Input
Amino acid sequence: MTKVEIIVCPKCKGAGNHSRHETTCYHKGEYDVIYSDCTACNNSGLVKMTTVVTYAPHIAGRPDLRQ
Ligand SMILES: [Zn+2]
Output
């Protein structure tokens, strides 16, 4: 069984890109905000998470045997 969930991208926290501050003038405290693409979610801010659920039931009377 496979469970597919859409979750907020953990890399960019749903923003769809990464932003960082790059100081352009240290003395004035000026900076540019640099945006870069988030490759984990292709800038959508959401990723598909696939969970494979395995189910191994006990066989009645034989807890040592699993299917
Ligand atoms: Zn992302």
